[in-house]
Write a structure and sequence with these properties.
The structure is a single chain. The protein is an all-alpha fold and about 130 residues long. Helix content is about 80%, strand content about 0%. Helix 2 packs parallel to helix 5 and helix 4 packs antiparallel against helix 5. The protein is elongated and about 60 Å long.
């Protein structure tokens, strides 16, 4: 995607001849890459956490805050998975496509739904494991 974007920008700037459909490919590709990466980040334990204030709090408060944040994350990811699945069905029904290449949005929505659902399940499993170990 980086080479596609840079190549498109260079060709557009110097030769006034951009790569046809580069934005469409980047848009679809980025949604797929991010959706696949999210469950991998959960598995690796590399989610974004800003815990400066929590680290200064007592340990029982830190544990409670972690449970609350993990629970809210599971709810949020499950909602995104559900809405993305509905959007995929709508996109397929209405034939929503990108502007130039006419690539369907439905597969992107399905991948977003699957990635969000997998992330929610992985976070739930992690939360259950932490609960059992405590």
């Amino acid at each position: 995607m980086m080479f596609l974007s840079v190549g498109d920008a260079l060709l557009r700037s110097f030769f006034d001849s951009p790569i046809f459909g580069a934005n469409d490919l980047t848009q679809i590709g980025l949604s797929i890459v991010v959706s696949i990466s999210l469950p991998l980040c959960v598995l690796a334990g590399r989610l974004i956490a800003i815990d400066t204030l929590i680290k200064m709090a007592p340990s029982y408060l830190e544990k409670s805050a972690n449970w609350l944040v993990t629970g809210l994350s599971i709810i949020m990811l499950a909602y995104i998975a559900w809405r993305s699945a509905l959007n995929a069905l709508s996109a397929a029904d209405f034939g929503e496509t990108t502007l130039l290449l006419q690539l369907s949005f439905a597969p992107s929505y399905y991948v977003i739904s699957a990635g969000s659902a997998a992330s929610a399940v992985l976070l739930f499993v992690k939360m259950v494991k932490e609960w059992r170990s405590s």
